[in-house]
Amino acid sequence: MPLLESTARVHATTVVDRRELAAGIIVLGFDAPELVAATRPGQYLMAIPPGGEVCATALGIYEAQGTRASILFFVTGKRTRALAELRPGDALTVMGPLGVGFDLSGGVRDVAIVAGGVGIASVLLPAQALLRAGARVQLYYGARNAALLVDAERFVTEGCELLAATDDGSRGHHGYVHEALARAPHAPDLILACGPTPMLRAVAKVAAERRVPAQLSLEETFACGVGGCWGCVVPIAATSAQAPSFPPAALGGSDVVNARVCTEGPVFWAHDLRW
Amino acid sequence: MVTRVTPDLSVQLGRLHLAYPTLMGSGCYGSGIEYAPFVDLARIGAVVLKSVTRQPRLGNPTPRLVHTPAGMLNAIGLQNPGIAWYLEHDVAKYADRPCAMVGSVAGFSIDDYAYVCERLAARAEIDAIELNISCPNVASEGETFACDPALTAKVVRAARATTDKTLIVKLSPNVTDIAAVAREAEAAGADALAVINTVRGMAIDVEAWRPRLGNVTGGLSGAAIRPIAVLAVYEVARAVRIPIVGQGGIETVTDALEFFLAGASAISIGTANFTDPRTPERIVAGLSEYLQRRNLTRIGAIVGRANRGFANRQEYEGDQG
Ligand SMILES: Cc1cc2nc3c(=O)[nH]c(=O)nc-3n(C[C@H](O)[C@H](O)[C@H](O)COP(=O)(O)O)c2cc1C
Ligand code: FES
Fold first, then answer.
1. Which of A224, B44, B132, B187 could link A228 by a cystine bridge, Cβ 3.0 to 4.6 Å?
2. Residues B237, B282: contact at Cβ < 8 Å?
3. Cis amide prior to A50 (ω within 30 degrees)
């Protein structure tokens, strides 16, 4: 684990842009050139709560270009509410970039990205990187209703093919987003997914059925976000390249080990997960 | 004009000398390296490592964390690779840390504690040992050691016999009389006491009708437990003469000062690192500033000053810095 070579830092920044994409869905842009330079697709940051709440908040890095990075989040509790109150000119301190992002090596040509709800926050950077590399990118994007499919057009502008799904049928497929993926006539080379755990489990199942490798960006409650507390774990095969050091079953240990979502992840290969 | 010298923040815990009176709480700070991108480890006193047990432990099922008002619940369940693997694969990496490294030992029997303590303390990379006899998150007797003064005495005596290195005994707040447990630990040979470990707690998901932690119950930490911790330090400081490492919800220099004034010789920071990794550096700078403002030259000058029954009063009395 090359933690010593980590490019993560504390960045004291200033909010320069605030957009409310839908009720309670906020994008905060801030200037952090060093963070932008270090960020790889699928990484996240910890935002230090401006209101003095306990624990920083883990948020996917939505945009990272030039000097500007942004976070996209849903207001769900005290800490995100405090962040949502920030306005241009306000101070925002973040730690990052953190975690292991998507593995986009291997020259993939045809990629399905599956995003559910706030999961959209972690898939713009991989979509852009894949498009730049000349891949075809289909975005399967699910939400409760059409209004909550925030920034969908942005992905189209970038060059993604959009396949929407809504719980109420107000846009695209009426039902779950993984159902749209299961029905796709051609299987992609690779699936990337980020969203709520039930969606990720369903995507993993579709991927296994269609024999497509899938990388899932997991969601878990974090405390430290840097690998210090082991609070955010997920069981994975000890044979995974991402497995932390632990004795094998033959030495009284286990062949399924608990990996830290914040450090070994948040992105794992679906076939490695034992959840 | 008063010439201001930089106050001496160093502290002695048994044979262990720390340049700063700030320890990073066990289980909260990994082995220090996780935080190295964000803080200068040379500016903290010690990292207390994650507790290690005799056998490997996968730990508790998830969810292991719940955010609560002014704090959090955790139920990690002592996930660790077991002492044999730990000694072979992990401990050597701690040699180059610029701060002291305190090993933390947990167990389920007196023999476990002695076994793990002896092996860990024998390593040069480990500067001192903390006995975690107060983990609230394991199904069996883990915490009952710190809940029973007689068992505390036995386990401390057994661990004491295995090493001359500083032995810190970590006490539980989940007891009726923490001073009684503290006295036994002191009599059995502890060099210092860590006060307190987490407070037992629980949270329930009202939609799913089930506890929010995989382990059902957990340990509460953070600002929510600070007044409980300050009182525990105050009571223990009246009962024993060995130094106390105060902890529980310390976020700011003011919080830290409360613990010193109650009778702690050093402090430990856990949960506040999750909020802002710059917390330890801020507290050290704040302590320096506070002592300078009062023309005090050493941190020891304020230890126990708000505690009239402070057992170590003689030692600190007349020390105006
Ligand atoms: C996530 C987490 C894991 C912990 N793991 C351990 C542990 O393995 N051993 C131990 O002695 N204490 C453990 N603790 C307790 C802390 O070291 C500390 O004593 C306690 O949290 C109170 O301090 P704080 O409010 O500053 O966090 C843990 C606490 C937290 C929050
Ligand atoms: S959140 Fe602390 S180890 Fe992942």
1. A224
2. no
3. no
- Asked if the bond preceding A266 is cis, omega within 30° of 0, the reply is yes
In a domain, B223, yes or no: yes
CA Rg value for chain A = 18
Alpha helices in chain B (DSSP H): 83-89, 110-121, 144-147, 149-160, 178-187, 226-237, 253-262, 272-275, 279-293, 313-316
Q: What is the ipTM score, two decimals?
A: 0.95
Q: Which domain holds residue B148?
A: 11-316
Indicate if ligand 2 lies below 6 Å from the C-beta of A220.
Answer: no
Positions of B marked active-site: 135
Question: What does the alpha-carbon distance between residue A224 and residue B209 come to, in Å, rounded to a whole number?
Answer: 28
Which one of B49, B62, B73 would you mutate to disrupt binding with A, by most A Cβ within 10 Å of its Cβ?
B62
Domains of chain A, CATH where assigned: 9-98 (2.40.30.10), 110-217 (3.40.50.80), 233-268 (no CATH)
Q: How confident is the model at residue B321 (pLDDT cuts 50, 70, 90)?
A: very low
CA distances to B54, B183, B299 from B111, rounded to whole Å, are 10, 22, 38
At residue A109, the pLDDT reads 92
**B24/B35 Cα distance (integer angstroms):** 11
Q: What values do phi and psi take at A158, rounded to 5?
A: -70, -20
Is residue B173 pLDDT above 90, yes or no? yes
Q: Whole-model pTM?
A: 0.96
User: Domain total for chain B?
Assistant: 1
Whether residue A212 has pLDDT greater than 70: yes
CATH number of B258's domain: 3.20.20.70
A230-A256-B107 Cα angle (round to 5)? 55
Taking alpha carbons only, the member of A201, A215, A198 closest to residue A42 is: A215
pLDDT digits (tens, 9 = 90+) for A59-117: 999 999 999 999 999 999 999 999 999 999 999 999 999 999 999 998 889 999 999 99
First to last CA, chain B: 18
Q: Do A55 and B278 touch (CB under 8 A)?
A: no
A228 lines ligand 2 (CB under 6 A): yes
Residue B91 belongs to some domain of the structure: yes
Is A254's CB within 8 Å of B222's CB? Answer: no
